[in-house]
Design goal:
single chain, alpha/beta, TIM Barrel, 10% strand, disordered C terminus, binds iron/sulfur cluster
Amino acid sequence: MDLAAVTRLLPSLAALHTELVLLSGGEPLLNPDWAAIAEILRRHGLQVWLLTSGLALSKYAARAAKLFDAITVSLDGTDAGTYRAIRGLDAFDKVCAGIRGAADHGMPPGIRVTVQRANYRQLPAFVVLAKALRARQVSFLAVDVANPHAFGRTDDFVSDLALKPEDLPEFEQVLRAVEQDHAEDFRSGFIAESPQKLRRIHQYFAAIHAQAPYPPVRCNAPEFSAVIGATGRVQPCFFIAGAADARVSSATENPQYDLDDVLNRQDMTQLRTAIQMGARRECTTCVCSLWRDRSNIGSAAAFTKSASEAAT
Ligand code: SF4
């Protein structure tokens, strides 16, 4: 999505009273227009967040610190070997340098950890590392192995990423140790989730192995947010696709730039109703639900708080 496509969306974003735009990747900083996009969104009164793998953050730390209202970096290992094993890249030091670089320029990033079999023993080490890197916060999210849309899957495949049944007792001990040793970090909000919320990650992996029900999900994200993909495809959330032709800014074949119109097509409205009624299977196993009180739906501050609690 280039600057021209984002510019065409501006009237729609204004009409919808949009308050906050999250630029997400992969690595959005590889988009040659990233700075111009962030600038134009800010100039139009929007808050702009960056969610990044951190691969290019050290290169652009000064500029990113100036242009974004918040930065979150995905970091899935506390050492080079674990990072390489999970990401397939030798980039641990580079990502850490990006986090430090943004902090040096006055924008300490949040760190988001996707908890999985290769790193669950490192939970306490992530908290220590986040402090050493001068991060603003650390948050934990279970790796999504149950949602049929994660990794483009369509079958019931359970990947090696998930904890195995024999890992669960050890994960329980790890969680207990984090609760005991980092009580102050929970209290201060440095660890974004509450101890109870971290225990949902354990329950999620237990549910994958039919040892527990999935943790209950409460989510109204599609009522106040939407996802626009790089090709202009509009979705109610990251996990549920809209119709293939529900898209904006897809150049010549469908010059439709009105996000309001796309979001309020009959099929998109019906999709949101189905989500509200609990009729979508994706929601049952979702690792990334987000609830926001209706009274606060117009408040970016409330969204900021809820989103960090939900670990993006
Ligand atoms: S629970 Fe998950 S899948 Fe369902 S609407 Fe919320 S974010 Fe989307």
